[in-house]
Design the sequence.
């Protein structure tokens, strides 16, 4: 029973420890990141004629996913050390690592709107979420070199927060298994 309690507490700790809201660079980096994600999701829905979600709901989902990204991807390798300047294959792979956090955030937002429920899984929504998450990372990487230095620094600071979350996550390999 103690292991389950430790795991639940670890989710809470990894979600909020590295995100220091007193640091303006983390806050503005998160705002940039959320802007790119919401823009990409909204554009995919608009271009392909899918059901449009309210902008406020998209903002809430992607903002809530920020403190969960590093911890929820703990079972995967950490993001590439070059961040947004990594090779394109790694950029796509790193974009996909944030998908579990967005799914958890979607459940949290929907729970706050309608109460506890069994989530319904629509295949189209899953594909939109995956595509939007991956393409938003690709979009950021595509414009990263053209962004002013302060904007790049803020995104790098947020990326460092994701590294800290990932390092603290218990979803990855256990220390006993890695020493074998």
Sequence:
């Amino acid at each position: 029973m103690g292991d389950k309690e430790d795991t639940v507490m670890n989710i809470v700790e990894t979600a909020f420890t590295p995100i220091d809201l007193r640091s303006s660079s983390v806050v503005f980096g998160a705002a940039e990141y959320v802007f790119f994600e919401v823009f990409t999701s909204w554009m995919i829905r608009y271009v392909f004629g899918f059901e449009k979600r309210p902008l406020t709901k998209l903002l809430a989902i992607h903002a809530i996913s920020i403190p969960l990204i590093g911890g929820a991807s703990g079972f995967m390798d950490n993001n590439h050390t070059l961040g947004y300047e990594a090779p394109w294959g790694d950029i796509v792979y790193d974009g996909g690592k944030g998908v579990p956090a967005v799914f958890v955030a979607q459940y949290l937002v929907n729970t706050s709107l309608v109460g506890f429920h069994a989530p319904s899984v629509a295949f189209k929504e899953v594909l939109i979420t995956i595509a939007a998450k991956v393409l938003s990372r690709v979009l950021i990487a595509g414009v990263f070199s053209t962004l002013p230095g302060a904007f790049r620094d803020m995104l790098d600071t947020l990326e460092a927060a994701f590294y800290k979350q990932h390092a603290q996550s218990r979803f990855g390999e256990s220390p006993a298994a890695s020493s074998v």
Observations:
- The chain is about 70% helix and 0% strand.
- The chain has a mean pLDDT of 79.
- The first helix runs from residue 2 to 16.
